[in-house]
Design a protein that fits this description.
By secondary structure, this protein is of the alpha+beta class. Among the domains are: about 50-90 and about 130-200, Immunoglobulin-like; about 205-305. It has helices at about 1-30, 205-220, 240-265, 270-295, 300-305, 330-335, and strands spanning about 55-60, 60-65, 70-75, 80-85, 130-140, 155-160, 165-170, 175-185, 195-200. The strands form 2 sheets. Strands 1, 3, 4, 6 and 7 form a 5-stranded antiparallel sheet that branches. Strands 2-9-8-5 form a 4-stranded mixed sheet, with no helix packed on it. A hairpin with a 2-residue loop joins β3 (about 70-75) and β4 (about 80-85). About 15% of the residues are buried.
């Protein structure tokens, strides 16, 4: 029996190792050693600088409200791996081009002093691959119609990340983000980049929590279910053990269902604190349930059962067509 258990454990360990190896292999294939877009990538394009076309590489097609999202990056069509950034480092202040700035501009009609004037840039200087861009938000009204005028700057933020060159956008209202840009060589985006700002969607984790909460609620009310099948309960403590399990299931069910409802209603991400509190309460309930129900478990009987040959392991059920030796077979019937 011990040899059989060892073989069973070896097979399980081998299966787990195989699954982990497959996951690592798939991760390696997805990550790959291939070329990745970067602001430090070499620009080996053979297209003339004046003929290069600016484009925007999408990372997402829409964003969720109140979520800072990397929407994409600027690059040339002939080299999608070289990320282009803005001169001023991005941000909402990068686009303040009010007419009032013109009042501070120097008088270009006056000839500068030859002794103090800086050297004029030469025509054959290095290529300027910086980008000037604008990001606008058009808010939706209660009927879902977009406003004809851009929203105020306090309702959204945006910036180009200095490390990876991606454009990050965050909006506090529903609507549509519109991005326009031009490059120093005179190239502009062929069309305005448009991204919808949608409500936050319910995650798969929240759905699973809600479903488990419904199951625990049913178990707590009916008192039935495999969750109550416990071994090694102290003699005479079965009723108390089951009562503790029902109360624990009821408390966990209420919290899990509440967490699912909060996530479904939190389309604007303003109830994150409530969700974190509920998750903390759920963890506390699980810990309390383990301690409470553990009081009614006969630990000595459990330890003895585990020390026995085959203890603590699952045994395979008998085959469906396994007959005893004294039962008649087909040959006996023919005789």
């Amino acid at each position: 029996m011990k040899s059989g258990n060892k073989k069973h454990n070896v097979r399980i360990a081998a299966l787990i190792a195989a699954v982990l190896a497959l996951c690592l292999a798939l991760t390696g294939c997805m990550m790959g050693s291939g070329k990745q877009p970067s602001i430090n990538a070499e620009d080996d394009s053979t297209v003339a600088y004046a003929d290069r076309q600016l484009t925007f590489a999408h990372n997402v097609q829409s964003i969720q409200v109140n979520v800072n999202t990397a929407v994409g990056f600027f690059c040339y069509e002939d080299n999608m791996y070289k990320i282009l950034t803005d001169k001023t480092g991005g941000g909402s202040d990068a686009l303040d081009t009010d007419a009032s700035d013109a009042t501070d501009a120097p008088d270009v009609t006056a000839a500068p002093d030859a002794a103090t004037a800086p050297d004029a840039p030469k025509a054959d200087t290095a290529e300027d691959n910086t980008v000037k861009y604008t990001v606008e938000l058009f808010e939706k009204d209660k009927d879902g119609n977009l406003s004809e005028t851009p929203a105020s700057s306090d309702k959204f933020t945006y910036e180009i990340n200095e490390k990876n060159g991606y454009l990050f956008v965050k909006s506090s209202v529903l609507g549509e983000i519109r991005i326009n840009a031009s490059c120093a060589n005179g190239s502009e985006l062929k069309e305005t980049v448009k991204l919808n700002v949608n409500r936050q969607s319910v995650s798969l984790f929240d759905i699973v929590m809600f479903v488990i909460g419904l199951y625990l609620l049913y178990s707590a009310i009916s008192g039935r279910g495999r969750i109550f099948d416990a071994e090694f309960v102290k003699e005479g403590m079965e009723a108390k053990h089951k009562k503790a399990m029902r109360i624990s299931c009821l408390a966990a069910a209420v919290i899990m269902i509440a967490a699912g409802v909060v996530s479904a209603l939190d389309g604007f991400g303003k109830l994150q604190t409530v969700s974190m509190i509920l998750f903390g309460l759920l963890c506390a309930v699980f810990v309390a349930a383990i301690i409470w129900t553990g009081k009614y478990v006969d630990k000595n009987a459990k330890r003895e059962a585990q020390q026995q040959p085959g203890g603590g392991t699952l045994r395979a059920p008998k085959a469906a067509f396994e007959f005893d030796d004294d039962e008649p077979t087909i040959d006996d019937v023919k005789k």
